[in-house]
Amino acid sequence: MYKQLNLWENGETLEPATVQSQITPQNLILPDGDLVIYPNLFDTTESDQLFYELYNNTHWRQDAIKLYGKSIPLPRLTAWYGDRGTSYTYSGIEMNPEPWTSILLQIKSKIEPLSNVKFNSVLLNLYRDGKDGVSWHSDDEPELGNNTVIGSVSFGDTRRFMFRHKSKKYASQEVNLTHGSFLLMRGTTQQFWQHQIPKTSKPVKPRINLTFRVIITST
Ligand SMILES: O=C(O)CCC(=O)C(=O)O
Ligand SMILES: [Fe+2]
Question: Is 0.95 exceeded by the ipTM?
């Protein structure tokens, strides 16, 4: 039902040729959306190292949502880091960020020049195997404001990232998010589109995803 993306066009870059393959963006032409992907922003060696560090040193937590009075564990582990004062309510769970670590700041500094924003928080997800996933949603919580920018970095096994337009059903698409990839979602993407990482019965190894966000703070 979902076709693999084939609508990429190469973007332009001003970087030296040596690093060009890593930072050449592929823009996705989508109605009412603005998605850009850098398939290999982090090379394999760097990605292996970052995966290992994040897997072992993140304060992963098992959160649960309340549904009809029952507590249901999320099918993934999560963690929240960021500037002080950027608390965030996610699926009814209030998250208070832990302070930035050097590794998170290292990743953040690599994606910020490509994103044209300063991110002040990051939500990490650990998909332990194919039974973990995230169901259809938009990242449109009020703390993010309109036209929010979300910078999504992936390490570990490849998973399918699917997105569907809220009313233009024919426009559904999907892309594989690979080890070391960077996906930038901006403009009206969250207003008009939903996304998910489906569970899979295929054997998959763990995957870590980091969604860097700009939380609007009152101070
Ligand atoms: O794991 C991913 O690529 C997506 C995660 C996500 O959509 C979220 O945390 O809001
Ligand atoms: Fe999301």
Answer: yes
